[in-house]
Amino acid sequence: MTTIRGVDDPIVEALLGVPEPALRWQVRTRVLGEPDDAALRAEVRESTLVRRLLAPVLGPRPPGVYAKWQGAHWVLGALADLGYPPGDETLHPLREQVLAVWLDESYYRTFEVRSKAASYRRAGVPVMHGRARAHASQQGYALWYLITLGLADERCDRLAERLLSWRWPDGGWNCDRVPGADTSSFCETLLPMRGLHAHGSPQAREAAEVFLRRRLAFRASTGELIRPDFVQLHHPLYWHYDILGGLRGMAELGLLGDPRCADALDLLESMRLPGGWPAHARFHRTSAEIALHHDCADWGGASSRRPNPWVTAEALAVLRAAGRG
User: Fold this and answer.
1) Under 8 Å between Cβ of 125 and 112
2) Of 308, 300, 314, which is closest to residue 246 (Cα–Cα)?
3) In what order do the strands lie in the sheet with 131-132?
């Protein structure tokens, strides 16, 4: 079992000694449980990492809001995760951009269709067999990061309303346009669940059952692993899913004590390397060039043989929240 003793733990001590203030903030607040440090958050705001993230969206030719992974949507999500100080009015222009996109009138337009091909013939949210096929992770992520960054206003209620209007009978969401799809998707449910929880919506707990019924990675029907990449670790996760992302969501909802989290926690512990936890794979290429799947930030790379500091900090935070230390 992983032991988190505090600053005498060599992994924790090593992370506290890194120059990156966002890593130190995460370890102090999420692993050691120290009070939030405004001075350290101010360091995060002025850090090289944050400047790199903001450079494309504040430049003369910013990428589209959803441009992967350099648009305003992804940048605000990263800032929220890094401990960027809340309530910064200089981010208001980025907030306006994302809300203009995710509250566009097309998201209030639903239409019934019977086939996948027909679902692409009109703008709006297609509905098949009573289930809205919406990319709910988009509005869900925006709801989470706007609240976390202290940028929320009454329009966040509208984001929550859209999410709740698209829920599937099992409590989650799915964008799959195959008519026979009848179960919520992990990738489309994780971020809406987190966003609704931050918003104070009780339906977040119902969404958590989508994961808990499947022990965060396994089919409810057979017990088999749903997808191999669910048990690989990544950073950043963006809109994807893995067990560490699922466990973080359960931590935010206070559900890590549920016995159905135990298998995922055991798996996470088993992945520990001598110096921490690895990023087994990544969904981005580190580059300042504006292009698909480029990310301006250096997130430590991916290798199954060496630890990644961002994954390590997040794994330690989850295990601390689970009482495994």
Assistant:
1) no
2) 314
3) 110-112, 125-128, 131-132
**pLDDT(277) > 80:** yes
Coil, strand or helix: which one is 307?
coil
Mean pLDDT within 48-69: 97
pLDDT digits (tens, 9 = 90+) for 137-168: 999 999 999 999 999 999 999 999 999 999 99
The angle, 0 to 180 degrees and rounded to 10, between the axes of the packed helices 92-102 and 72-82 is 120
> Which of 39, 55, 159 is closest to 98 using CA atoms?
159
Each domain of the chain, given as residue ranges in start order, spans 85-213
Return d(Cα 288, Cα 306) in angstroms, integer. Answer: 25
CA distance 32 to 22: 14
User: Distances from the Cα of 238 to the Cαs of 164, 165, 228, 241, in angstroms?
Assistant: 22, 23, 18, 8
pLDDT digits (tens, 9 = 90+) for 111-132: 999 999 999 999 999 999 999 9
Q: How far is CA 151 from the centre of its chain?
A: 18
